[in-house]
Every structure is written in C-alpha cells, then in structure tokens.
Amino acid sequence: MALSPKSTSITTSPNSCTLFFIFTLTVIFLYTLYNHHSPSSAPPSISGDNPPFISTFLNSASNYTISNYLRHLTLRPHLAGTPQSSAAADYVRHNFQSFNLETHVTEYSVLLSYPVKSSLTAHFSNKTAELLPLTEPQLGFDFSDVVKPYHAYSPSGSVYGKAVYVSHGKEDDYRALEAAGVDVKGCIAVVKRGGGMSRNAAVVMAAEKGVAAVVMFTENKDKVRSFKSGGGVERGNVLDGVGDPRTPGWASAGADGFEVLGLEYDEVLKRFPGVPSLPISAETAEMILGSLEGARVPHFGSDGDLVEKFDRVGPGPTFLNFTYQGENKVATIQNVFAVIKGSEEPDRFVVLGNHRDAWTYGAVDPNSGTAALIDIGRRYSLMMRMGWIPQRTIVLCSWDAEEFGMIGSTEWVEQNLVNLGSKAVAYINVDCAVQGPGFFAAATPQLDDILVEVTKKVADPEFADSTLFEKWKTTSDFPMIQRLSDVFSDFSPFLHHAGVPSIDLYYGKDFPVYHTAFDSYEWMVKYGDPFFHRHVAVAGVWGLLALHLADDPILPFNYVSYAAQLQNHTQSLHKLLEGDVSLHPITSAIQELTVVAKQVEDETKKMREDETKGHVSILKRRILNDRLMFAERGFLDSDGIQGRQWFKHLVYGPAIESKLGFFPGVADALYQSPGAEHAKKQAVIQHEIWRVARAIQRATSALRGGLT
Fold this sequence. Notes:
By secondary structure, the chain is of the alpha/beta class. 37% of the residues lie in helices and 16% in strands. The protein folds into 3 domains: 16-111 and 331-551, 3-Layer(aba) Sandwich (Aminopeptidase), CATH 3.40.630.10; 125-238 and 273-317, Glucose Oxidase, domain 1 (3-Layer(bba) Sandwich), CATH 3.50.30; 559-704, Transferrin receptor-like, dimerisation domain (Transcription Elongation Factor S-II, Chain A, Up-down Bundle).
C-alpha cells in the first residue's frame, strides 16, 4: 500500500552479511516447506464436491510461489511516481504476460506530493533544546532509500509554539480541553492517530480550533521497542477525498488532453488542510508529553492513552520549533491489468483489485495482496490451459498511487464510469492480504451468502481439518461481515461513486509496522505469516469469489439479506432519534424491498431448477442477472452526500462522524451543528431520511424490473 525483477539485492548496513545469511536460510526453509506439502503447499480442498476447475484452483495454491513474489516486490521501496514504482509495475506486468494473460497498462498524469526537508526541535523548561528524531532507528538496516516520514499534501510552514496534547483531535476532545481552561490557539498540537478520525480530519479540526501546526503519532500498544514495532513512524496523506485533486470527477487522462483545475480553485483548495503537519514516532511523542505541565483532562485516558502515564496536557512549558517543506509534483502513475475474456457474457466484468504502491517496502501494505493477486493470475492461467474459460470477463487490476488517496483506482473508475455502471458485476478488493492472525471481511449485504459459502471451501491456515468458515464464525466479533462505509482502500470509487457491489478481504486486524520502514519481507517472515499459509487462504477466498461471480449462471446475490440489514440499520437509527422525526419513509421502503427481494429469491430458485433441465434461455437468465446487478446502483443519488458530492451512495458512504456506519447523510445531520435551532436540525434530518427512502425505492425498482 513492491519490486522490479531487475533488483537483485537489498542495500544494508554493515550487518548485511548476517542478514543475507538469515534471509537465505528463510528461503531454503520455505522451499523445504513447499516441497513437504506436495503437490501443493496449501492444505487440499476440504469440500469433495467442487467442480473440477474449482478443485484445480484450490489445489494449485503455493505458499512458496507467493513468498517468492513478495520477496521480489519488496526488494526496494516503491513510492508512487518514482522509478522504483515503475519497476514494480513492470514486475507485475511481466508476470501477467508470462501467464499468457491479455495484459495492458493505463497511465495517468496526477498531482503527487513529496517532502523536501523537515525538522522538529523541542525547547524544554530547563532551557535545553533537543533536535527530535523524525526517522526510524536503523536497527541494523539501511533506510537511506526510504522516503523520510511525512504527510503528503501537507502545506509547508515553519511554526514556533507551545506543545499541547489534544488526544485524537475530535470535537469532543477540544470541548474537554476548553472545559479544563486549555487554550490551544497558536500551539503545536500533539495528536494521537485513531478515534475514528482520519489524518485529514484531525488536521482540519486542529486548524479550525486555531492550532498552528500538528505532530501526529501512532501509539505502540505493546510498548515493545524492537524490530516488531518500536520507533516506527506512520507516513500517510492528509488530502480530503479521493482521486487527483486537480480533476474532481473526471480522469486525469485523455487522447486530446484533459481539463486541470488550478490549486486556487475552491473545489481543489478545500481538499488540502490549512496548517502543516508531520508524523512522529510514539517514542518522540512520549518525550514531548512527558515534559508537559498544565491541566489534566481525565477522559483522555479512557482508551489506554499515554495520558495515563503523562497526565498533563499543557500548553507548554515545552516549546516546539516545527519546520516542514514539501512540494507537489505532477507525476505519471501506472495501473496494470490482466483480462480474461468471458465466453458467454464478455461485456460483464468481475473486477479484482489491489494497489501496488507503498510508502516504504510494503510487504504487508499492499504487496501481500499484490503477491496473492499475481498467484491468482497464475492459477487462472493453469485452469485456462486445462480448457477453462469464464462465462463473464475477469479483470485483475494492480492500482497505483492508492497511498495518495486511492488515485489510480479513482481515475480509472471515473474514466470508465459509464461502462462500469452498466457492465460491472462486482468488485473484490484486497489491500493488505495479511497483517497477522484472524480473518476479516466486509461487503455489501447481497454478497454475504456467497462470501460465507466460499469460506466453507477454503482450508483454515491455522487449524488442520477445519475450514476457514468454521474458525471465522467462532472467533469473529459479531457481526462477522462488516460494511464498507469508511474510505480506506480502493473499493471506495467502485462502491461509493459507481454503485458496484463490493467486498474487501484481509487477514489480521492491524499491524505495528503500518506505513513504517519496518514493513518489510523480513517482518512478514518473522511475524506476519512465517509459512505464508494465510496468504494462501486469502488468495483462495479472493479467487473463488471471482470464479463464482464469473461462472455461476445466475449471480449469487441475495437481496433478502440486504433488506434485513437495512432493517437492522433502521432499528439502530431509531434509538438515536427524537420523537418528532419519522422513520416511516425508510421502513415503508424497506418493506417494499423485502417483498420484491423474496419474489426475486423465489424466481431465482425456480430458474436454477429449470437451468438443470436446460429450460432457461440465455436471454431470460441475462435479464434476471441484470436486475440483480443494477439494484445496487439504485442506492446512488446524483446529488451525493451533502458537502461531499462525489460520494453518491446514500446507504454506505463516509460520514463526518463515523458513529453510525451507514446512512451517511442522516449521520451528518444528526451529529453536526450541535448548536443549531432544534426545528431546523430536525427538518434536515427528516430530509435526509426521505433521501435514503427514495434510494431504497430506486433499488427496489431496479430489482423488480420493468416500468411503473
């Protein structure tokens, strides 16, 4: 979220010989492990009734092959827009071509952001001044080729001011500070990542409160100062929204050129925060927080915060001297595609995507997913040599510049919006395939059933003689399948802008080297997935989902499940509303959707029965599939979410406050403008409820088919 076949070594410190020896032993061990599991390193398919090609797909898995892909991808850092990133694109393209897959590259000219220089000096109350570290400790590695920690798209600036701790930087945090008599104006805020706040939201909020600059850290919960987590600095972007900021709503490519808005345009300017920011390590944050005096804010320690250890929030007496200079540059990014054309419905697309660019080496984020994607291509190629051709077209996508705001996928979706809107069956995303233990999935609800069924066919990587589903259902927090409201990976343009049913998959809830220089192949081998069996499991689920969506005669969509989920959302919303706001528009629309969804379920069941007897025409099946496919588009609204019009989905989309996780327009109306006149606020909430109801009605109409 890495590398060229031309790269053959890792530049290291004087300990390179030792590291190379360890690395060699690791590769030999994995090779031995691979051979031990002949004919496949992955456990065999547990289900004995799989069609031949599905069994071939499952049984041709190889942890050694995936580990080899990952090793090559992570030989060098590959930040988007750099020569190393182009080399990574070449590596993916070369592999797709070696599988005899139809391969092409689409380029875009976009605005990216890079650091020039930065520094942070603390002036403590004892009159001493100390230059604080902004980079990771070497720990035996040479990080000279890794980009220094920074926030992409941060404005440049130099600030001298008192340090103040603002926790996550939420509105509630600033209210608590104000109640404690803390004035943050002109200060440099120390912000802890998390709490439902994106980097952009935290910096924008700080600017609104009069903060002059922000330093941001991610807390190391285990407090282990080791290669596993200690000293890492989390890079990231602070841009609001997704895609190239100069081309909001259209692609940054075209045979005859394309329109580019200047940075002075309000539509572009509002996407950049108003004050500069820098990431720092948790260790550097502790040095600052430990020197603060002033007020105490008790609730800051409610989530295991550092304030439990350092219970003063300032301001001061420590002053910080902050400097950041960055530059925004137009760069070329490359999306790489492999296409397997469908035999019966070549104009229906099942899209699998993973981004390739990384802040550093990117072993977890994102190239654990890239390695799995390449291996899916390899296995599909093997099936094709055995005579398999999908009924619908499968597209394997390797995105660029995701770390700068889902730019590669967004530009492609904007460029292909009409065709995707009318022809895309589903999008299946994997970003970080493996972060650690535990399987996680999020999806639009009509895909819940097929997701569950596929996990019943894939062996659990941790437990012998068990399916992934059996352990998932017993270890996962309820609900097992999450929803896709947040904007954190490349599913966003597909679902939130184009209305394409989507799934996101990954192993491991989080990982301590996120966006740091320690996100390396060595970390993966030592901590993340030593035997690469989790990689095999994710690739198995990912590839099988695509096979079902491409080959099942009738699409495996269940809108009864969707209606039930909407009903659950409405019940949760009811608990938050006051009596003079009515949910009747939504509940009535859901009732209608439920009736139609059950009718379609019965129709689908009968058609599947007739299919086995050869009594269903291709046209009749196609008409039903189109209704199933287009229903998700009904949840889109041309006006989008108020204030964020690019996001069109009114059921799942980003809210300013992510407390609900659904109905983003209603959530914004509920949690914004706390001081607004009651009647006016209630009227806004009611309007947003009606908008959701109309969206559900549109989805119902598409599912029913025909005209009123």
